Amino acid sequence: MHARIFGALILTAFLFFFPISAFMQSGSRLSTYISPQPPNIPNSLSLLTSLSLVLSLFLSLAVSFILLCGTESEYKLAEMDDPKAPTFAVSGPKKEPRANKYVLLCAVMASTNSILLGYDIGVMSGAVIFIRENLKISYVQEQFLVGILNVCSLVGSLASGKTSDLIGRRYTIVLAASTFLIGALLMGFAPSYAFLMAGRVVAGVGVGYSLMIAPLYTAEIAPASVRGMLTSLPEFFIVAGILLGYICNYALAGLPEGLNWRIMLGLAAFPAIGLGSSIIFMPESPRWLVMKGRIEEAKRVLVKTSSDEGEAESRLQEITQAAQDDADLAASKGWTGQGVWREFLRPSPGLRRILITAIGINFFMQASGNDAVIYYTPEVFRAAGIHNKKKLFGINVIMGCSKAAFVMVSALFLDRFGRRPLLLLGSVGMAFSLAALGVGSKFLDHSSGSKPLWAIVVSIVAVCADVSFFSIGLGPITWVYSSEVFPLRLRAQGTALAISVNRLMSGAVSMSFLSISHRITFAGMFFVLCGVMVLGSLFFYFFLPETKGRTLEEIGALFEDKREGDDTKAKEMTRL
User: Could you confirm whether the keyword Transport appears in this record (predicted)?
Assistant: First the structure.
């Protein structure tokens, strides 16, 4: 274990500091990103060293993340194998389910669907500058072009719940990748603005499917002890896609006008092909199989994803009992066919709390303006006086590195410290960061002539801090909560409903950010978003319970009041 930690540190130091030395030897400085004068270094050398720095940083973080994940698993295994280790079970010792490599592989392959959205967010922030110049569109058309993907992902999110219940989780993943592939090809070959909009509509539906199915599949296949870390992987891959999009912007910015943005958008077809092909290595969700009465198939999957057959049998009994309870409840209320949506419209007190929690966290995730900040950061800094496209994309790359680093931190500690502490830390940190960004933008807005260097630096640091705190809290934890709080009979469509609110808010913010900012300035917009995050922090504190370490079947009890719990126990005693 100690050797693995030591190896992670050595590898991180080598991969990170070697390109830094090369970067500094080339004569490049941070001021080249914020100075209005072009840097006095060869363009090719600057590009190579910059990309070397970014790729090495991301690689070092990724390798350290994998090594430390392995260390954490070994530590848990050693702790459970130690007979002197203390147990905290209420009713006798209980062996905690643990993940194996097969579960990790399945979670990673499912979560890579999210890289499609991340790449679009990252690459569109730069491509839209070239699209506006090439197709001569207005800023209103620009907003619609950016936001239409998020609005149309609402369709995919709403349809994904019923679809995944009908055809299964695996084939819904294939459907998501295939739909995005078609959209990417349409965007890459778009001859006009209308054609480009059509491609983003199709890609948006695919994004909606992928955002719902990735965390849902991972939550249903992972044991409780590592579910938080594995279910947060979609956010990690969103961030990886964003960083990849930023790097493509930076690398392809020098291509001829009309070709650069088409290649940027069309490259998204390649990961979509790979994701659709990965389905042959993935099993179906055992909970979906139980829901369909395919118990033996579910048992085979659980044997592969558990440490031994005894654990697999225990998990199967728990899932089967939960499915039977759900079926009994639906039968007692006469709900068939459209019963799920009838139950959403007339929820019990416990389900009402679940809906408030799931919809609320998805609402604040996008009301925070994180997607809009990422999409329009180049516009913000162009207003601040930075007009060189390479420098604008360089700021984006720095921001992407910040997100990548902190989403890994969150994933590593999510199952150790719990959801609530990291969520509250992230939301409060975002509020302070947005306030600082508002202050910096205020001085930049009111500066005539040359812009104060300190205000530019404060704005850059505040943007990086905002996206970093988002990656610690709201980013990964929203997907975790959305996929684990609903009971089995409602999980797919409940998660779809919550993520539909997420996409609706994302589209609304993305399609109005520039218009509102032109009326109240960028500084005013950031102060509004700061106020939203203050309200979000209060909501999280009072309404979101801790779910760390609980199975999906146990989490429902957190949302029941005492009277509901007593009624349930009375019914059980009567049945006995």
Answer: yes
